[in-house]
Design a protein that fits this description.
Helices cover 22% and strands 24% of the residues. It is built from 9 helices and 15 strands. The strands form 3 sheets. The chain has a 7-stranded mixed sheet with strand order 1-6-7-8-9-13-10. The chain has a 6-stranded mixed sheet with strand order 4-5-3-2-15-14, with helices on one face. Strands 11-12 form a two-stranded antiparallel ribbon. The longest helix has 21 residues, at 201-221. The radius of gyration is 20 Å and the shape is globular.
């Protein structure tokens, strides 16, 4: 259990969701503010990890956005562990937040985690679902099990989440009685290097089904009386319009609503990721989502919902990238989703 501070009234919460794209800040020595003055080549030499540290200019750019937008809770994907999150908070955000992260299952060491502003007037707990089976095997594994050779080839009973579903429980006195629960995930990507699950569809669908189960269990446990939030990088179109097949059960088995849908943002305004194709063809898609439960939806300030657009050195909004080189210059390859909840009821 981690303490922020106690409180007695409802809360106004500013929330930011961001896939920070490989936020690694790792060093073999204690990082200090002096290291922030290094040239990029020297900065990268600080770590002997197989993962490159995030470029300094991108860290500064993300920190500037966070400081300007002033979120109370940040929901982050692609974080290189608790060390990276703690270093980012300490070196770039003046330790204004409490870093919250449990290492998940990623084979790329990219985790989901939170930054919670200090002195907000509540406590918080983090519950990991990284060891929860998602009731899924790949087709060839299912065939081996059916043939009786599953044990011979060490086929597991089920795979687990590619990363995790990290539950952040906010409470004042009794940790068993949270006044809000946030579920943060990063579903299976579309990569399929082994050629066993085209576009990662089956695995992602299984992870989505398990995520829905976790959400429904939380709804049942809290009797639908507290606001729940389900968020993360879904790696596909989980919106109501032209929903990808693997996400359709989201609308069949829950009453969750996308904040962008509630705010009536246009499809162009909702884009959190731009796919750069051949001949400079650019496709903007929403693949990062924050869904609200029936108890949370009425708390949304719809006018606060926006996808933050990166700006150039003159403060002008940058056009969507049309080349991979242009995309690589951005602070992240995803754009932050920002919104506010007003008068969140606090249970003493």
């Amino acid at each position: 259990m981690s303490q922020v501070q106690s409180s007695s009234t409802g809360l106004n919460l500013n929330i930011m969701l961001l896939n920070a794209e490989n936020l690694f800040l790792i060093s073999d020595e204690q990082l200090t503010e002096n290291h922030l003055n290094l040239e990029e080549r020297q900065w990268q030499k600080l770590s002997t990890s197989v993962f490159d540290n995030k470029p300094l200019r991108k860290c500064f750019a993300l920190a500037k956005i966070i400081q300007e937008q002033n979120p109370d809770i940040l929901l982050l994907a692609e974080v290189g562990g608790l060390e990276s999150l703690s270093n980012f908070n300490r070196l770039f955000l003046q330790e204004k937040y409490s870093p919250v992260l449990v290492e998940g299952n990623s084979n790329r060491n990219i985790d989901v985690g939170y930054l919670v502003r200090k002195n907000m007037g509540f406590y918080f707990d983090l519950v990991s679902n990284k060891n929860r089976p998602i009731q899924f095997l790949y087709p060839h594994e299912r065939d081996l099990v059916a043939s009786g050779r599953g044990e011979q080839f060490k086929i597991p009973a089920s795979h687990k989440f590619s990363r995790d579903v990290a539950e952040l429980h906010l409470f004042t006195r009794d940790r068993e009685k949270p006044f809000m629960v946030l579920l943060l995930t990063h579903l299976k990507s579309r990569l399929d290097p082994e050629g066993i699950d085209p576009n990662g569809l089956e695995r992602r669908q299984a992870e989505l089904q398990a995520l829905i189960s976790i959400y429904n269990e939380a709804e049942t446990r809290t009797r639908g009386k507290i606001p729940l939030l389900v968020a993360g990088d879904f790696n596909g179109n989980a919106s109501k319009k032209n929903t990808d097949p693997e996400f359709k059960t989201l609308y069949e088995k829950t009453q969750l609503l996308d904040v962008c849908e509630l705010a009536n943002l246009s499809q162009e305004e909702r884009a959190t990721y731009y796919q750069v194709g051949r001949h400079s063809h650019v496709e903007g898609r929403q693949i990062d989502y924050c869904f609200l439960s029936p108890a949370a939806s009425p708390l949304l300030e719809t006018e606060s919902v926006k996808i933050f657009r990166y700006k150039d050195h003159l403060g002008q909004i940058m056009d969507p990238p049309t080349t991979l080189d242009a995309k690589a210059l951005l602070p992240s390859d995803h754009y932050p989703l920002i919104f506010s909840l007003k008068n969140v009821p606090v249970i003493d």
